[in-house]
Specification:
The chain folds into two domains: 1-70; 76-251, Cytochrome c oxidase, subunit III, four-helix bundle (Four Helix Bundle (Hemerythrin (Met), subunit A), Up-down Bundle). α3 runs parallel beside α7 and α4 (79-105) packs parallel to α8. The protein is mostly helical. It has helices at residues 2-12, 21-40, 45-70, 79-105, 121-145, 149-179, 188-220, 226-251. The longest helix is centred in the C-terminal third of the chain and has 33 residues, at 188-220. It is 79% helix and 0% strand. The radius of gyration is 21 Å and the shape is globular.
């Protein structure tokens, strides 16, 4: 009986083995790599922009679709596995910070020629927005736990709005700096700046995609997978904590 139940359960989750979403994500990553090649190797900026226009929707749709496919089916994101994933992602950020520290401490002149004065107020506003979003998702999880679906929905949506606002401010800052002639190839500092803030921004995009995966169920008022929401919240708290390192080291040190 136990064997048959286990066998039946395995068949119930066989859809995971044939998911189309990893295929979609792979194409998105391929187009992302092509965009970098087109811009930096072949200097075809317009073609690179068009390719990015294909890459980001595919990656976001792939992450959201793959996550949504597993919600409520006994699979999906695992709280423990997310902890290991966060540890791996933290190592990537540490490598960028070490490169920044080493470069800054081993050159005679810093900041290097061609540098611009980074804004001081905007990063503080961005920090306030991101910290607020971390608090709102935490409160949303609490409301979900006590069974208040209406309140959970409001705070969940507020978290997404705050996250999108943070991303919008990052895009505004990038466009302003690039318009002033400060690009990733200007000097060593600009390379680190755009790499680190871009890496963090990509994590914000992934976090929003995870929230988007749960959005249809949230809006319909379905039974929400509390484990999924806790795991999504854990990832979002990681994005928040990493930003403290970014803003303190890159903007103010």
């Amino acid at each position: 009986m136990a064997h048959e139940a286990h066998h039946g359960d395995a068949h119930a989750h066989a859809h995971w083995d044939t998911s189309v979403w990893p295929f979609v994500i792979s194409f998105g990553i391929l187009f992302l790599a092509l965009a970098f090649s087109l811009h930096f190797v072949y200097h075809a900026s317009f073609a690179a922009i068009l390719t990015l226009g294909l890459a980001f929707p595919l990656i976001i749709a792939g992450v959201a679709g793959w996550t949504s496919e597993a919600m409520g089916k006994g699979e999906g994101l695992s709280y423990g596995a997310m902890g290991w994933f966060i540890l791996a992602e933290a190592m990537i950020f540490i490598s960028f910070f070490v490169a920044y520290w080493y470069t800054k401490l081993h050159v005679e002149v810093w900041p290097p020629a061609g540098n611009v004065t980074l804004p001081k107020v905007l990063p503080l506003v961005m920090t306030f927005v991101l910290v607020s979003s971390s608090l709102t998702i935490h409160y949303a999880e609490h409301l979900l736990h006590v069974g208040n679906k209406g309140g959970f929905r409001i705070w969940y949506l507020l978290t997404m709005i705050l996250g999108a606002t943070f991303l919008g401010m990052s895009i505004y800052e990038w466009s302003h700096l690039i318009g002033a002639g400060f690009t990733i190839s200007t000097n060593a500092f600009s390379t680190i700046f755009f790499s680190v803030t871009g890496l963090h921004g990509s994590h914000v995009v992934v976090g929003l995609a995870i929230f988007m995966a749960g959005l249809p169920s949230v809006m319909r008022g379905d039974d929400i997978d509390e484990g999924f929401m806790r795991t999504a919240g854990l990832y979002w708290h990681f994005v928040d904590i990493i930003w403290f390192f970014v803003v303190s080291q890159i903007y103010y040190w």
